[in-house]
């Protein structure tokens, strides 16, 4: 019940996903430089507007007539006049960067995502010290939590900072980093070739979504220093990082600037509550929430464990669908992705769940309501928590062309 690898991710599609329905991250597991590419499900370009096509009803009788006459090609072309404008884009929130003070060489590297616990683990040895990271995105505490540790006292030294592709200001002070920003007022889809695909209006005129993220760092020993927008910790044994994010999104029909949520108060409250709880309490709350959902379904094709210890990429390459245990793992991975990208109170899972690293993602990472949103949720009631979002195909395709091919040849359990 693990996706496991013997090397860090090089590409975004190699990273491992975590999520609590609203707040997600793709985790690379780097040794010298770790990256958490973070998303929040209400971070979109644009602002509320009526994009209905007022002329659609005039063309509907003609489309129906063509269908009755079985002129399907002509009906398909005529139906384009029923469509409204394209939607805005689901956006990447930020990246958390950790730079470690390690020598170039390391050994015994392991990276895995435990589907039974929704916990991501990374471990390796460097200079005779074993380093471990344990990470999860908690639904009850609405935060990403990361524990870093070394098996020898005061052997852990690293810096942490936050960056974003959006217009932001990042500031570090004390033991926290604050990232404040706003979204573009307009983003053209990736398939539109336009001279200015990403537009920011003047701040006074803009009604785009505002947002803030806070990263908090706690340690049992060692020293923290601030350098510009980074926190630098030296000679620590264990460090706990908590990360929370919020936006001004306040519903599809409310302007996010003038009628938006108090996102700064919200993210501050979320983080204060998470900081007040010890790490073991955060982990226990996470497991008590997640495991009853994941344990609703039992599904077994192969009880043998002969291939289970192989790294997942090697297992796919060597055995493919001949490995029934791998097919079983794929089934449960789909259930995991559903739980991680759609929860009570969150937005519905979009084309890529909640994981996206591009300002102009494929199909804007949006909601295509002709069939795709429905397809995402078809199996949910059957398995009570199952989904195979397009994220899966992006995570297992090296090129855009491969990803598109996989999308159109989807394997649905």
UniProtKB/TrEMBL annotation:
Coiled coil residues, start to end: none
Pfam families xrefs: Glyco_hyd_65N_2, Glyco_hydro_95_cat
Gene3D superfamilies in the cross-refs: putative glycoside hydrolase family protein from bacillus halodurans
GO terms for MF: hydrolase activity
InterPro entries listed in its UniProt record: 6-hairpin_glycosidase_sf, GH95_cat, GH95_N_dom
Domain Glycosyl hydrolase family 95 catalytic: from-to ranges: 279-398
Domain Glycosyl hydrolase family 95 N-terminal, residue spans: 3-251
Record's keyword terms, sorted: Hydrolase
Name of the protein in its database record: Glycoside hydrolase family 95 protein
Species this protein is from: Alkalicoccobacillus plakortidis
